[in-house]
Amino acid sequence: MPGELTVDPTQVTDFRRTTSQLQSFWLFCQFVAGKNSDYASRCLSNMLHAAKLGEETPFEYFRSLGETGVHNALVASKVGQYGRLTKGIMQSLGTDLASCTLDDLLAIHGVGNKTARFFLLHTREGCDYAVLDTHILAWLRNRGIPDVPKNTPTNGKDYRRLEKTFRYLSRLAYPFLSDAEIDLLVWSEQSGRISSEEMFDMANPFESRDGVDD
User: How far apart are CA 144 and CA 179, in angstroms?
Assistant: First the structure.
């Protein structure tokens, strides 16, 4: 089972995840806050591999460990932020990730607007959220939008204002893509995983770069 729960940071969108896969992805969403996505993915893989899960889901396994056991498993994974993650995981164990709301996720310790929206956007088809990470904020600044901070806004009103702006502009820029696809595309380009030329091709599947249809 652990191999099936691995999270590839470049392919995070999946609207047909099993219960175990939803739980694994939610753990990744909590792990990756403030960290490199590849490192967070490796830490999660190490943690789940060490668990040697059989028929248990990750949440069932962590429930059996208890708070001290979860803390020790996190330390062994070397993910960091052990206090925040231990409390956040323990509070997550009673959450139905297939039906929970944004407010349900925001009520969990250490979970902010970015983390909660990241999970929902990439597990629920048709979500209309924006994940305001450093890459999307840079994308907005590059387009001359005023008062865009370098880090994710902690104020809900500011977050929603920039979210509305990004969704409007990004849909104009990438009319053929969903919000989940736009999120992954902007992250991939801003983090250097794809070139500007590759980004153009992905964002404009029916148009060549010189403006002439193929």
Answer: 21
